Amino acid sequence: MASTPETPDAESSSPDASAADSARFDQIVNLAKRRGFVYPSAEIYGGFRSTWDYGPVGVLLLRNVKDAWWKSMVQQRDDVVGLDASILTPPAVWEASGHLSNFTDPLVDCKECGQRWRLDKLDDPNQCPNCKKTGSFTEARNFNLMFSTHAGPVADEGALAYLRPETAQGMFMNFKNIINTTRVRPPFGVAQVGKSFRNEITPGNFVFRTREFEQMEMEYFVHPDDAPKYYEYWKAERERWYLDLGMPREALRLREHEEDELSHYSSATADVEYLFPWGWDELEGIANRGDFDLLAHTKRSGERLDWFDQAENVRYVPHVIEPAAGATRTAFAFLLAAYDVEEVRGEERVVLRLHPRLAPYKVAVLPLSKKSPLRETAQTLAAELRDEWSCEYDETQAIGRRYRRQDELGTPYCVTVDFDTAEDQAVTIRERDSMEQVRIPLAGVADWLRPRLK
Ligand code: ATP
């Protein structure tokens, strides 16, 4: 991928995207702001360096992505437990993990125009993508991506802390606690969803690369002999997760890393990639981390982080398979994949074809009139549905415009309470993708929706 220069709110698509892809990207970014998915952070002060806030609709989409991940990775399994570890971390953790010395990106400055770039992400390492000058770069400097701060009132060396650049270390920090306090035994996993921070040299492409983002990571601890098997297993599982949630097959791929791409801790890594408007790019990395982390922390902390197999009477250091995904990046990819524009009776219809599990609102209740008894009937129905799903209620504007608004929010079903409802105790349900309408009993709406929203 070509890098974008750092600007206060770098958000346009990359220079190598085709004009059509670039226009589509801009439309989606525009929709995201217009409909309350994502707002520039601190916008009244002009925004702040590629930070974004998730609005009333975006927070639902993001939460649904995280919930879908948690459900498949934790709730539906008997071999994975959850964790929520702290973001503030002492330096010892990052010394041992190798992040203090290795978590760096090569930074170059263009002497001609002053732009900064991440060298490993440039298409041509000799040419500045901004001013096009060749041979104008400074020597590459290794720039550590971790944010540091101080814990407590005195900003001295002893108070130095880091904002975690990944959630994974929380799992290694708690390995001993978890094996001592729960009934897990290898193979088992520890999963976590939460914020991570990286002082990225070139954030951009909207929420694709930001300095503050959310990750969904799981460390799966296995007997060393089983690591290759579970590496294959998790690659297949994770690819299936995206497909099950509606990612188009042709826009998703697994790509095995070349030897020279591997991180300092990994013996094998594959990325799940999505075909972004600027080309294939990473959604998730699945890595075989071996025994690197547990050994490194055992050495640094003096605590023995291993497993005693009572049946076999042997001790071993489990190997780790890690599927590490980005929640914010993945939510964005689902938004891109869902965006569709079609012509309906001579008019353009914008529709987000999100999987019902990801859709911010599952249903909207729309009374044809604000008058009694339509309003009361509709409000009672909305209150009933809210018990199970996030539900929109909208009584303003013409019905056609209300449908279009729900289409842009990705709401799978709209329930219309009309003038016949008082007579026949029935409502009309309109399906988002086909726009087909069915009339069903008012009392049966929740039962009708339930299997369709699973
Ligand atoms: P990249 O090569 O894009 O910098 P990475 O390989 O360093 O990413 P990992 O350390 O494997 O990323 O992190 C796991 C996941 O976390 C990534 O696949 C991505 O979805 C997400 N992620 C990492 N960095 C960012 C970021 N700056 N903004 C948003 N999501 C991120």
From TrEMBL:
It holds the Pfam family tRNA-synt_2b. Residues 26-360 form the Aminoacyl-transfer RNA synthetases class-II family profile domain. ATP binds at residues 198-200, 208-213, 282-283, 326-329. The keyword Metal-binding does not apply. CDD domains: GlyRS-like_core, GlyRS_anticodon. It is an enzyme of class 6 (ligase). Homodimer. It is found in: Cytoplasm. Belongs to the class-II aminoacyl-tRNA synthetase family. Its main location: cytoplasm. It comes from the Bacteria. GO terms for biological process: diadenosine tetraphosphate biosynthetic process; glycyl-tRNA aminoacylation. Catalyzes the attachment of glycine to tRNA(Gly). Substrate binds at R118, E166, F213, E214, Q215, M216, E217, E322, P323, A324, A325, G326. InterPro entries: aa-tRNA-synt_IIb, aa-tRNA-synth_II, aa-tRNA-synth_II/BPL/LPL, Anticodon-bd, Anticodon-bd_dom_sf, Gly-tRNA_synthase/POLG2, Gly_tRNA_ligase_bac, GlyRS-like_core. This is Glycine--tRNA ligase. HAMAP family: Gly_tRNA_synth_B. One of its GO terms (molecular function) is protein dimerization activity. Residues 1-21 are annotated as: Disordered. Gene3D superfamilies: Anticodon-binding domain, Bira Bifunctional Protein, Domain 2. Keywords: Aminoacyl-tRNA synthetase, ATP-binding, Cytoplasm, Ligase, Nucleotide-binding, Protein biosynthesis. Residues 10-21 have a biased composition (Low complexity). The gene is glyQS. The keyword Transmembrane does not apply. GO terms for cellular component: cytosol; extracellular exosome; microvesicle.
